[in-house]
Amino acid sequence: MAKILYTKTDEAPALATQSFLPIVKAFTASSNINIETRDISLAGRIIAAFSDTLPTEQQGPDHLAELGELAKKPEANIIKLPNISASIPQLKAAIAELQENGYALPDYPDEPENNEQEATKKRYDKIKGSAVNPVLREGNSDRRAPKAVKNFAKKNPHSMGAWSSDSETHVATMNHGDFRSNEKSAEIAKAGSLKIQLVTNSETYTLKENVPVLAGEVVDASVMSKKALLSFLKEQVTDAKEKNILFSLHMKATMMKVSDPIIFGHAVRTYFADLFAKYDALFDEIGVNVNNGFGNLLSKVAELDADKKAGVLKDIDEALVNGPDLAMVNSDKGITNLHVPSDVIIDASMPAMIRNSGQMWNAEGKSQDTKAVIPDSSYAKLYQATIDFCKQHGAFDPTTMGTVPNVGLMAQKAEEYGSHDKTFEIEHNGTVRVTNHDGTVIFDHSVEEGDIWRMCQVKDLPIQDWVKLAVNRSRASNTPAVFWLDKNRAHDAQLIAKVEKYLKDHNTNGLDIRILDPVEATHFTLERIKDGKDTISVTGNVLRDYLTDLFPILEVGTSAKMLSIVPLMNGGGLFETGAGGSAPKHVQQFLEEGHLRWDSLGEFLALAVSLDHFGEKNNNSKAKILGETLDDATEKFLDNKRSPSRKVNELDTRGSHFYLAMYWAQELASQTKDADLQAQFKTVAQAFEENEDKITTELIEAQGKAINIDGYYFPEDAKAASAMRPSETLNNILASI
Ligand SMILES: NC(=O)C1=CN([C@@H]2O[C@H](COP(=O)(O)OP(=O)(O)OC[C@H]3O[C@@H](n4cnc5c(N)ncnc54)[C@H](OP(=O)(O)O)[C@@H]3O)[C@@H](O)[C@H]2O)C=CC1
Ligand SMILES: O=C(O)CCC(=O)C(=O)O
Ligand SMILES: [Mg+2]
């Protein structure tokens, strides 16, 4: 039987699934739709990677690999919830939790001392960071706020911090020596393979022997100079202190899992320069690695004997007093922006700051103007342009502003997304040289020890597909589309040539399609958005990530409300549930007070499209009706304001799922296309209506107390399920469908 595959992930979305999936299964059971789950949680992926070393009863299949294969087939229909892209601290915490549960897994070896540890590290590094999305995203992305969502936000605007024209908030970015400045790009003429070597005066080191390439593929390489980065960071620390504004660093250490932690480490060492100068030898000895954040230093120092520890802690306090104030992640707990690289992720952190009057939290828990340090200048300027716009025009108004859907190039590990196995922290001064199979040099960069060199690829077919998707979206929504590409950037210049070429394959009569550099594109888009006009952004992979949080957060309060579709290149569908993360803060609240505020709206939207796609592919008219009625139910859900509240003892995720189910049943009962579904759900709708008070009371009564699900990364399924399904009345009705 044809299937919809639902992913089991982590944190808040995984909890929400415990309550929502039983509803989905009950509603679809009579329509010949088989819904199965596949585990791509961080814990599940660790278990799969080490299954050959675990006893049979602890082993787990590699569901990610299975889904990755499926994504290349026409029958794929996958619902993808957000999962953890693990930073090293998250990975270590998940390993520790599995070990406590009796899994004999090796520790993560920070600095491998032998071959065995080297092999262990390799296995873990495959799980680290953004390891799921690039495997499943065998298509480009189409992310937008559906009309119902946008209209709801216009009528019920979220809070927006006012902007003042004398705000001192700004973006600081490098003007030389960074990836943008040093980029070189080439189009590959003939399929073959590339070799990456570091050539020094005395030796030639092979960094990567074989990078397969296809004809028409765009390959680019660049280098971030360590010297330039350090002097830039030093200037910014001094400047933040002088201006008396917060110092904050915005990176994507999870998604850009090789380059960005190194940059993060340099920022921590620069901020705490005196401390590192004084304790250099000691920190070396105890294995401090601040690429994993300042928290790593604190945890290592905690293990020192009392005297030494007190000395270091005193110097840390002094450094914090002497340095500029740091933006805080949690002022109450003293957690700074520099503690854990996964705590501040640029796609969400910059929009959150812009929504909050351009301010972040200081150590006293008050909002303060901020220097937002974004070292590489490839995309940073879009944020400065947005900040300038807010300073000039004031905050955006969600009741009137237009919308910015995105068509993003990401298929087949496009651009920086696929750079991880081609990113190197350079160990010797010399030249990094990329040659093709016949030895011709494609490009070279002279490098110094400590520089970060990386190469990216984007294949031709994904580019063609991306251009087609942009034209289709522009046509379908009658909205101008802007390609955010900069002719003065090496990579973008190649893409512009291809976009111009492939646009000719389509009928673009009457469409407004432009190519603008990111700053011009920001100006153009923001002017229009202010006037209530819509503009599609057509971007590369990193801008896709940035813009699909920026605009949703400004327009509708969160990217959780986005429709997020990945039309897979071989005909299948990957339906992502929203565009945002996995909200660790929501889990904390749930465990402390039994209230989950995760909004599953993105999941409702994704499921409706998935059902429609299923109906289309399998000639299943019931599936199509289920999809249509789900969309209608979602609209009713919005009109009746059934989204979870943020406060305990009010409707939470579970209650919101009940209402969605009731509205869905009502819509199925009132449609007339399918008499069987109509009859079946008439009874169900009635049962929900008659028991509405009872169910909502049961769901509220379950709140207000701490919840134990025996774990964070690897909770006990049965406990999580029972915590997420506390209404016996609701459960009985679902069981009766
Ligand atoms: N597609 C994927 O798989 C993605 C995964 N991630 C992963 O998610 C984790 C956290 O990332 P981060 O970027 O900090 O994002 P978060 O999930 O923490 O989201 C940031 C904030 O947005 C709000 N929010 C996000 N989703 C929802 C929702 N469904 N309902 C209500 N509010 C929501 C919350 O605000 P408030 O706290 O005010 O309620 C939340 O704190 C990381 O492990 C990251 O790797 C990140 C992006 C995408
Ligand atoms: O893959 C990741 O780590 C994050 C992805 C993300 O943030 C996005 O796709 O918007
Ligand atoms: Mg994102």
UniProtKB/TrEMBL annotation:
<feature type="site" description="Critical for catalysis">
    <location>
        <position position="252"/>
    </location>
</feature>
<keyword id="KW-0521">NADP</keyword>
<dbReference type="GO" id="GO:0004450">
    <property type="term" value="F:isocitrate dehydrogenase (NADP+) activity"/>
</dbReference>
<dbReference type="GO" id="GO:0006097">
    <property type="term" value="P:glyoxylate cycle"/>
</dbReference>
<keyword id="KW-0816">Tricarboxylic acid cycle</keyword>
<keyword id="KW-0329">Glyoxylate bypass</keyword>
<dbReference type="InterPro" id="IPR004436">
    <property type="entry name" value="Isocitrate_DH_NADP_mono"/>
</dbReference>
<feature type="binding site">
    <location>
        <position position="544"/>
    </location>
    <ligand>
        <name>D-threo-isocitrate</name>
    </ligand>
</feature>
<feature type="binding site">
    <location>
        <begin position="581"/>
        <end position="582"/>
    </location>
    <ligand>
        <name>NADP(+)</name>
    </ligand>
</feature>
<dbReference type="Pfam" id="PF03971">
    <property type="entry name" value="IDH"/>
</dbReference>
<keyword id="KW-0560">Oxidoreductase</keyword>
<feature type="binding site">
    <location>
        <position position="545"/>
    </location>
    <ligand>
        <name>Mg(2+)</name>
    </ligand>
</feature>
<feature type="binding site">
    <location>
        <position position="586"/>
    </location>
    <ligand>
        <name>NADP(+)</name>
    </ligand>
</feature>
<feature type="binding site">
    <location>
        <begin position="130"/>
        <end position="137"/>
    </location>
    <ligand>
        <name>substrate</name>
    </ligand>
</feature>
<keyword id="KW-0460">Magnesium</keyword>
<feature type="binding site">
    <location>
        <position position="549"/>
    </location>
    <ligand>
        <name>Mg(2+)</name>
    </ligand>
</feature>
<protein>
    <recommendedName>
        <fullName>Isocitrate dehydrogenase [NADP]</fullName>
        <ecNumber>1.1.1.42</ecNumber>
    </recommendedName>
</protein>
<feature type="binding site">
    <location>
        <position position="143"/>
    </location>
    <ligand>
        <name>D-threo-isocitrate</name>
    </ligand>
</feature>
<feature type="binding site">
    <location>
        <position position="347"/>
    </location>
    <ligand>
        <name>Mg(2+)</name>
    </ligand>
</feature>
<feature type="binding site">
    <location>
        <position position="133"/>
    </location>
    <ligand>
        <name>NADP(+)</name>
    </ligand>
</feature>
<feature type="site" description="Critical for catalysis">
    <location>
        <position position="417"/>
    </location>
</feature>
<feature type="binding site">
    <location>
        <position position="646"/>
    </location>
    <ligand>
        <name>NADP(+)</name>
    </ligand>
</feature>
<keyword id="KW-0479">Metal-binding</keyword>
<comment type="similarity">
    <text>Belongs to the monomeric-type IDH family.</text>
</comment>
<feature type="binding site">
    <location>
        <begin position="80"/>
        <end position="85"/>
    </location>
    <ligand>
        <name>NADP(+)</name>
    </ligand>
</feature>
<dbReference type="GO" id="GO:0006099">
    <property type="term" value="P:tricarboxylic acid cycle"/>
</dbReference>
<dbReference type="GO" id="GO:0046872">
    <property type="term" value="F:metal ion binding"/>
</dbReference>
<feature type="binding site">
    <location>
        <begin position="597"/>
        <end position="599"/>
    </location>
    <ligand>
        <name>NADP(+)</name>
    </ligand>
</feature>
